[in-house]
Amino acid sequence: MSVVKTERRPRGELARVLVVDDEADIRELLDLTVARMGLSADCAASVAEARVFLDRQRYQLCITDMRLPDGDGLEIVKLIGERYGETPVAVITAFGSAQNAVAALKAGAFDYLAKPVALEQLRSLIKSALRLPRQSDAESDGYAGASSGQLIGTSAAIENVRQLIDKLARSQAPVYISGESGTGKELAARLIHDRSSRRAAPFVPVNCGAIPENLMESEFFGYRKGAFTGADSDREGFFQAAKGGTLFLDEVADLPLAMQVKLLRAVQEKKVRKVGSAAEEVVDVRIISATHQALKACVDTGLFRQDLYYRLNVIELRMPPLRERHEDVAPLVAALLARICGEKAPRIEPQALRALENYSFPGNVRELENILERATALCGDNAVVVDDLQLAPTAVSGGSLGRDGETLDDTINRIEKQAILEALTKTAFNRTAAARLLGVSFRSLRYRIERLGIEE
Known about the structure:
It contains 20 helices and 16 strands.
């Protein structure tokens, strides 16, 4: 068995990288790049040779081709995930082979590179992989504890979220965070970023529904001086601002179809072109997206591109609604009262706490915070009682969720439809003005009107 490898150095002297590729010129390119970064590499030409190296040596990174003479890169990804979990794996895919890249990321790959391999992207990937925290580091900083720093609660649902966040932080795979409004989707995205190798770089949150459609391309990708009227100087976009870090696309379902096409190319090729520029530039960002809408339903109705959906939804993190974790209400109340009032926080009477624990929380944690802010302003004798909470009776669990025993979804849809109709009536069915009145984007309002079947 012939194995191409670099000269072995004493164990622990240099970070070691395992390169697996059946093409000698690719192995040589990767070996040379790794050496110039002050690292040490071992090179294998097959799955079998890679197994031999993994049995002999611990590696800080493995880079493997997807197509090998005796198997494929997914075998190596799965092997390392099962037996050498501390070693991140990056895969090399054929140009335009998005399906292979997604499959590798789902299998646990750290990141991917497309052929022909761009040296700038390769160096960036290696640097990111070597900055990954080890599992022991995560445990020592208290992250594995019950409260995980910022995610409050001990329910099974929130514990599952913590565990998945910890796994996602060790990957570069795009993440889609689903969940209702107020469940903490941006908080989850920040935790993934803060636990990742990108934590020293920017976290850039973007509300996709708040950007005018005619400005989207320049806001996302930047522009060159003179690209359009008013472009008096070069300007960076969101992708450039998040260089080396994480770009969080909130309410991604609100992106128009034309912008979805441009975003798909940026995600696939890891390159963007400024408005008015003839050249593309490499961007090193991780994409995390979220929306309160059912994104798959948007795909089915033609409002969201299927190919972009599969690129963004490589791994899904579902944030559970508060009604699914009532045991977390008490610790959340304590934490929120401390945040709102500090050391002068009023006590909450047992009956008031029970009322909150039985409440269905259509607005989730955000609604709980609003309820407590109102209650602390209304309460007397430094104690919050049931009347101070002003809970809607139809949203209390244990009785009927709505009229004639309708489901929670039916109740929420009815209330939402009523609020939209009231806003449309006040604005003489001017949808732009109604969207402004409701505090949502025009595109989001249009989607809700179609979903709820509202007619003038």
